[in-house]
Design goal:
about 450 residues, alpha/beta, Beta Polymerase, domain 2, TIM Barrel, 5-stranded mixed β-sheet, 14 strands, about 40% helix
């Protein structure tokens, strides 16, 4: 580990507890210290902020006289990383809103700035909070303007001006209609071609969290997970999913207790036993196999053939040249036993940059070989980057929104991956794990050589 971010990720993945002199409590203290340090850097993971942003919104909505209130800015666009919490509010007296904000635990520095019709504060983690006050008749425009990126708002404003429209409405949908456009979901308002899609009638119907039927890329105590296989299956059922793909680390991942062949056989026997005990959740036998430096997989084909699915991932040698890293991943995608590519760029948000790789070549290879590309929902990864989703779709690539869960709690990260998919214009038809269990089983079988 060479950065604070990598240490944080190691804590999240439960990798410190097995080291001499470390335990669960020590790991928790390290993680808390890292997050305290990061609070002073100005950038925060969306997943670490959304809970306190919601608590502020609930307090504002409960204030007497408030007619409308919602998130705006980066939170409403569901950006991977955010710098502040922004709301737009119609109705309610400023002093009542100040009182409501002061009633939220650990919210500080609450102040009304009447000259800008704004309330400001600091969230429990120290993020700047800005609440724009407006009247109901202008709420739609103020919310739209405070939500979209600068590029999106400028492009929309130009369309409105060209039509001689003064943007003032209580609802956003009416403003888009006045610009000759359908409503554009907040996640897509990035100035990344969404207005052109809307204008041409090609705006997609975006994936919804409830459309995910099952999960892949999950770890157990067989490698570096903190829960047993049975506990992971039970947690999957509790979340309403119909299937789970178990994919512990492969043998080269010695740091994560990767599975040798004898332990693969033991796990497959346990999967069969748990499947009999919990028949209402289908368990798919998988592995997260390391892509070796030359692009070969971490097991011979006869071992790979024993799995229902194989996730191919890079976990080492991040410092290869762009050409060599690209060749490495493309060779792995040509392996007939590989089902999907895991965390395609290796990035850890706010911690580790993506390795040098030509992602267009990688996506070309995935499309050519009929491979699935993961949208990793772990809040530290959120990889594939949403900006690449459109290109992947053009190449016929399908996605799987995977939690990369190392605990039962990690299974709940799927909605963060759905956020990425929505920002990238991904539909339910683009995502394989929206398939019902029998169709998913048939697809995996069809992908085998």
């Amino acid at each position: 580990m060479s950065s604070v971010g990598e240490l944080e990720y190691a804590c999240v993945e439960n990798r410190l507890v097995g080291l001499p002199g470390f335990g669960a409590k020590t790991q928790e203290k390290i993680l808390a210290g890292i997050r305290q340090f990061k609070r002073h850097q100005g950038f925060h993971l969306y997943a670490n902020v959304i809970e306190e942003a919601e608590s502020i919104l609930v307090a504002i909505r409960g204030t007497p006289g408030v007619v409308h209130a919602d998130h705006a800015g980066e939170i409403r666009r569901r950006c991977e990383v955010v710098q502040g919490i922004m709301l737009v509010v119609a109705g309610g007296q400023p002093q009542s809103l100040v009182h409501a904000l002061r009633g939220v635990p650990e919210v500080t520095q609450v102040e009304h700035q009447p000259e800008t019709r704004t309330l400001v504060a600091r969230s429990p983690q120290g993020l700047p909070v800005s609440i724009k006050l407006t009247e109901a008749a202008a709420y739609g425009w103020e919310l739209l303007r405070a939500t979209g990126s600068q590029e999106h708002v400028e492009a929309l404003t130009q369309r409105l001006q060209a039509r001689g429209v003064v943007p003032r409405s209580e609802i956003e949908k009416a403003i888009y209609a006045a610009a000759g456009l359908p409503y554009i979901p907040p996640e897509m308002r990035e100035g990344h071609g969404e207005i052109e899609l809307a204008e041409s009638g090609r705006l997609p119907v975006l994936l919804e969290p409830g459309q995910i039927q099952g999960v892949f890329h999950t770890h157990t105590i067989y490698s570096d997970g903190s829960a047993t296989l049975e506990q992971m299956v039970e947690a999957t059922r509790a979340l309403g999913y119909r299937y789970i793909g178990i994919s512990d680390h492969s043998q080269s991942a010695f740091y994560a207790n990767g599975l040798k062949e004898d332990r693969i056989r033991a796990q497959h026997a346990e999967i069969a036993a748990v499947q009999k005990k919990l028949p209402d959740v289908r368990i798919f036998k998988g592995i997260e196999a390391d892509i070796l430096v030359d692009g070969a997989m971490d097991y011979p084909d006869e071992v790979l053939a024993t799995f229902d699915f194989v996730i191919a991932s890079v976990h080492s040698r991040f410092n290869l040249s762009e050409e060599d890293q690209t060749k490495r991943i493309c060779r792995a995608l040509a392996n007939p036993y590989v089902t999907m590519l895991g965390h395609a760029t290796g990035r850890l948000l706010l911690s580790r940059d993506a390795y040098r790789v030509d992602m267009k070549q990688v996506l070309d290879a995935a499309g050519a070989h009929g491979k699935i590309v993961e949208i990793n929902a772990n809040p530290h990864r959120l990889d594939l980057d949403w900006r690449l989703c459109g290109y992947a779709k053009e190449k016929g690539v399908k996605f799987s929104v995977n939690p990369d869960a190392h605990s039962t709690e990690g299974l709940a990260d799927v909605p963060f991956g759905v956020n990425v998919a929505r920002k990238g214009g991904v539909t339910a038809a683009d995502v394989v794990n929206t398939l019902p269990v029998d169709a998913m089983a048939a697809k995996l079988q069809a992908m085998r050589p």
